[in-house]
Amino acid sequence: MKKQFNRMRQLANQTVGRAEKTEVLNEDLLQVEKRLELVKQVSHSTHKKLAACLQGQQGVDVDKKSKKLPLTTLAQCMVEGAAMLGDESLLGKMLKLCGETQDRLAHELLSFESTIERDVIEPLYDLAEVEIPNIQKQRKHLAKLVLDMDSARTRYYQSTKSSGLSSNLPSTGAKADHLREEMEEAANRMEICRDQLSADMYSFMAKEIDYASYFQTLIEVQAEYHRKSLELLQSVLPQIKAHQETWVEKPCYGKPLEEHLALSGRDIAFPIEACVTMLLECGMQEEGLFRIAPSASKLKKLKASLDCGVLDVQEYSADPHAIAGALKSYLRELPEPLMTFDLYNDWIQASNIQDQDKRPQALLNACEKLPPANNNNFKYLIKFLSKLTEYQDVNKMTPGNIAIVLGPNLLWTHDEGNITEMMTTVSLQIVGIIEPIIQHADWFFPGEIEFNVTGNYGSPVHTNHNANYSSMPSPDMDQIDRKQNDQSRRPLSVATDNMMLEFYKKDGERYMTFSL
């Protein structure tokens, strides 16, 4: 009780400034003491944030952790979806391959997080919550021992003063000896603790390079994880692309011609052959073919069926205007016109030649410059349009009329203008290119041609369907489709076609006349 009372009195004296606390650490160790607290704070916050980045739960076995990874559940979902869709579908193939990939990525992630947890997170936790707190605990214990030593020294000095005043009392000398022993013992305990604390502090300073290596390990492990993940993904990508490239059922509208032909293994684009073959059977005598607009819903349905390679010939044979509209749309939605951007100037220059004998040869030269895929499909289409003109007395589609409604869908510039600009000299020049090629198709492309290349189309009986159409937009169009029909150039609207026809009659004849 007496010792505790003396310690409290000594502490109170130090607090109010009546006694000085002995400082037993040198300046370097005092700086280390301040640094300890900073390192502890940084290590604690880094450990906390880094642990929050882990997707797996800490402190559980590997199997349980793996099952709860988001990537694992995603992989399982994809594999189950693939089983439901089957390997016959492209989606099924993709889901299976991607599911297996996600599962492998999950294993890589699990290995990565386990390494991070073992080599970075746990050491940071030990540093912030064990090593530094132990040193700080020792520092507090040293402060207590210093207080004991100061208290014992004070008592001894007070006893010495008292013994000087009453030197005749034997008990006073014995008490002083006891207090001196107590002071020496307190100093000895303090020195032992101070030496141990100093050793731990110096060791902490020396191990800073080890603590810094935790963060080097973090980056190295992250780099290895991402490298393995990238290698895994790069090894799978060729398989994914192979599935995509070998899948025949691909959209053809809006896709480059050569890409569609390469994927489908065809020489003639599927929409061109399908539409031409059906029109040969059911639309050659249809008045206003390519000029009269079809029902918007019918056209949309037919384009969608052509896009997925499924076509009910019997159904659409009753609607030749929808077939013509689908063909017209395909030509206009090509990323590059069938007659190509590169040859645009060649075509225009040929149409500007005034010499009637030289102009056909210039057009032929431009035809021969077309890439093979474009040349084959252009020849196929021109041969069909030439055949269509054989029925012009019935269908009213002369070479000039056909050139007006189809020409802008076969050749255009990179910079497309508005409808007014379409009725300029340039548009008339395009018409002046197409009309003579249709008129003299056998001269430009000698020889016969087989239209039904695949032989997949029947021969329904032709009926006239003009009573179902007018030059106005289809009555079953919704408001958005009706607006798009009025504004879009893909394909040209009926109103625009009629305007072009009237304008062409007034000003277009000078572009068309030449002899072979």
Q: Tell me the name of the CATH class of the largest domain.
A: Mainly Alpha
The tally of beta strands, per DSSP, is 0
Second CATH tier, the architecture of the largest domain: Up-down Bundle
CATH topology of the largest domain: Substrate Binding Domain Of Dnak, Chain:A, Domain 2
Number of folding domains? 2
The major sheet is characterized as: none
Radius of gyration: 46 Å
| Low-confidence segments | 14-20, 458-501, 503-515
Mean pLDDT: 81
Shape assignment = rod-shaped
Helix-strand string: HHHHHHHHHHHHHHHHHHHHHH
- Which structural category do the helix and sheet elements fall into? mainly alpha
Percent of residues in helices? over 70%
Task: Give the count of helical stretches.
Answer: 22
The CATH homologous superfamily of the largest domain corresponds to: Arfaptin homology (AH) domain/BAR domain
Determine the oligomeric state from the structure: single chain
Short descriptors:
single chain, about 525 residues, mainly alpha, Substrate Binding Domain Of Dnak, Chain:A, Domain 2, Phosphatidylinositol 3-kinase, Chain A, 2 domains, about 0% strand, rod-shaped, disordered C terminus, GTPase activator activity, cell projection, Rho GTPase-activating protein 44, synapse, RhoGAP_dom
